[in-house]
């Protein structure tokens, strides 16, 4: 399977590119978010690739960031969501905005995506909810921060660090994340101290 392509950008449009790798031109389907990061034709480009093999075709889907690729892969596990709709979701809103909509059950926002009606939005909210923290953490490979929350028991600090790593994977700045999470963590009861609660509440503050 092809996992990454690095070559010369030959041609590009909003939904696909052709990349020349050692004389072989690869057609790669992309979301608009990736198109926005592309160089001019003739310049070198690197894309992360998800390879989908079907009986009648082998299609390549390219992404500028690991967060986009992981979200695409997670969306493809949702019943009724194919590659075309997954790309439409990535093209319509940022990874962070989509994750916020999922965590808050914002059906209205999700219905603004082309091809997503009420039933599909409800299915996304249901099936993607437990994937958001895994998605964000998987999308970020950076080292954990040392969290300075004096009121947070040592045994719970790993949860705060997981939340920092998850939110960084969605594109937020570590210093702002850390302050918000430390404030939240210091005021939550231990029973409420879950990764899901920390991420959900942080996203609400970050997007307010």
Care to describe what's here?
- The chain has 208 residues and is α+β, with helices and mostly antiparallel strands.
- It has three domains: 4-63, Nucleic acid-binding proteins (OB fold (Dihydrolipoamide Acetyltransferase, E2P), Beta Barrel), CATH 2.40.50; 66-136, 5' to 3' exonuclease, C-terminal subdomain (DNA polymerase, domain 1), CATH 1.10.150; 140-206, no CATH class.
- Helix content is 46%, strand content 18%.
- A hairpin with a 4-residue loop joins strand 4 and strand 5 (58-63).
- The radius of gyration is 19 Å and the shape is globular.
- The chain starts with a strand and ends with a helix.
- The relative contact order is 0.11.
- Residues 141-150 have low confidence and may be disordered.
